[in-house]
Specification:
324 residues; 1% strand; 2 strands; single chain; mainly alpha; two-stranded antiparallel sheet; disordered N terminus
Length: 324
C-alpha cells in the first residue's frame, strides 16, 4: 500500500488553482476619529486668540517700530514714519554705552539668579527639617515678601539703608555711608531687594518638589551615612531637575528685565548712568529722549537674548534625557 503524498494546499494559495491573496488595504481613520483630532485645538482656541492679542500683536508692533524712524515728531503726526531697515540696530550696536549696559545687565542678572536659587533651595530644605509652627511662620513671612509690590519693597529698602535715618547703618556702624552713591554698593543693595522678593517663589516650588520625593529614598540615603549636602546633590537635585529648570528659567527672565528696583533705588540708573540695566536704558531712550525706535530695538534685543538663553538651557536639559 502506498500512502497518498499529495500535499494539501489551501484554496487561493499559489499553485493550488487559486488566486494570489489580495494586498491588505490601508485602513483610513473614521471621519469621527479625524474630527476628534481637532477637538483639543478647538478647546485651546480661546486661549490662543487671547495670547495672540496680548502677546503676539505687541511683539509685532515692537519689532515694526524698531525698523522705523519713530520719534516725537512721528508720534505727534508732524512727520511721517520712514523705514530705516537695520539702521536703528546699527546705531544701537555702535553705541559703546549699550555694550556697557548689556554687560552690567548680564552680570547683575546672573548674580541675582544664583543668589535666589541658593537661598530658595537652602530654605526649602530647611522647611523640611523644622517643626510645623516655625515652618508656618517662615512660609508666611516669605509669602508676605513675595506679595509685596516691587515699588513698595524698594521704598522700604531705601528707608532701611538710608544714610541719615536708616537703622542698618546704625547697627553696622557705617555712619552716613550712602549705599546708592557707589556703583557696586548700589548694585549690591538692589540685589538684596531682588533676592528678598524673589526667593519665596523658589523656596515654595522646591519645597513642594521635595515633599513629592518618596520618604524611603531619603531615609535610605541617610542610613547609608550621606550628609545633608550629599543627599541634596546626589538624591534631591537629580529628582528635582525639572522643577529646578522651571525656577531657573523664571528667575532668568525676571532678573534680566528688572526695572522697578533699579529705577526707584538708584534714581533712574544711578549717577551718570552707572547703574543702568537694559530695561531702564530702553525706558530712557524711548521716553526720556523720545527715541521710541531705539527703545524698541533694545526691547527686541532683550527678547532675542531671553529666547536664546531659554532654548539653550532647555536643549541642554533634554540632551541629558530629562522630560519637562
Amino acid at each position: 500500500m502506498t500512502a497518498n503524498t499529495t500535499a494539501y494546499k489551501a484554496p487561493g494559495a499559489p499553485g493550488a488553482g487559486g488566486t494570489a491573496p489580495r494586498p491588505l488595504r490601508r485602513l483610513r481613520p473614521a471621519p469621527s476619529a479625524r474630527r476628534s483630532g481637532w477637538t483639543p485645538w478647538l478647546y485651546l482656541l480661546p486661549a490662543l486668540v487671547l495670547l495672540g492679542g496680548l502677546l503676539v500683536y505687541p511683539i509685532y508692533q515692537l519689532g515694526l517700530i524698531s525698523f522705523l524712524e519713530y520719534t516725537q515728531a512721528q508720534v505727534s503726526g508732524g512727520e511721517p514714519a520712514t523705514f530705516q531697515g537695520f539702521g536703528n540696530y546699527a546705531t544701537l550696536f555702535g553705541d559703546g554705552q549699550f555694550w556697557q549696559v548689556l554687560l552690567a545687565t548680564v552680570v547683575f542678572a546672573a548674580a541675582c539668579v544664583l543668589a535666589t536659587l541658593l537661598v530658595g533651595c537652602a530654605l526649602a530644605v530647611l522647611l523640611t527639617r523644622i517643626r510645623a509652627l516655625p515652618r508656618l511662620v517662615l512660609m508666611m513671612a516669605a509669602l508676605g515678601a513675595w506679595a509685596t509690590p516691587a515699588i513698595t519693597g524698594s521704598t522700604v529698602w531705601m528707608f532701611l539703608f538710608d544714610p541719615d535715618f536708616g537703622p542698618v547703618n546704625r547697627v553696622l556702624g557705617l555712619g552716613d555711608f550712602s549705599w546708592t552713591y557707589g556703583r557696586y554698593s548700589a548694585f549690591a543693595l538692589v540685589l538684596l531687594e531682588v533676592l528678598w522678593c524673589s526667593f519665596p517663589f523658589v523656596m515654595v516650588t522646591v519645597y513642594a518638589g521635595i515633599r513629592a520625593i518618596p520618604a524611603e529614598v531619603l531615609e535610605a540615603a541617610a542610613l547609608d551615612g550621606a550628609s545633608q549636602w550629599r543627599i541634596w546633590r546626589s538624591v534631591m537635585a537629580p529628582m528635582l531637575r525639572p522643577i529646578l529648570v522651571v525656577v531657573t528659567i523664571q528667575s532668568i527672565i525676571w532678573d534680566f528685565k528688572v526695572f522697578t528696583q533699579i529705577y526707584v533705588m538708584t534714581g533712574g540708573g544711578g549717577i551718570a548712568g552707572q547703574n543702568l540695566v537694559l530695561n531702564v536704558y530702553a525706558y530712557q531712550k524711548a521716553f526720556a529722549s523720545s527715541q521710541y525706535s531705539l527703545g524698541s530695538a533694545i526691547g527686541v534685543v532683550m527678547l532675542v537674548i531671553l529666547l536664546a538663553v531659554t532654548l539653550v538651557y532647555l536643549r541642554l536639559v533634554r540632551r541629558q534625557g530629562e522630560e519637562l
